[in-house]
Amino acid sequence: MNSDDYLLGLDIGSSSVKASLVNVRTAQSVASAQSPDGEMPILAVRPGWAEQDPEMWWQHAVASTRQVLHASSIDARSIPQFSK
Fold it and tell me: Which domains does the chain carry?
């Protein structure tokens, strides 16, 4: 397959970061993962406020992406955004 055959999607939510690798030609999910296994903490410094550390989102985006690449055995260079 060439480098345009896969797309990686990330869903950064308040409880976890999910990653999915999709084969563009078949529209099939190749692998999916989420990080962390539990929920990410939410800081409430005042009533009605909710905050999260963006560095935590990044760390879990990296972790879930690595899990997807490992599970799929796809070379990251086969994903256009990683190959540039």
Answer: 6-83 (3.30.420)
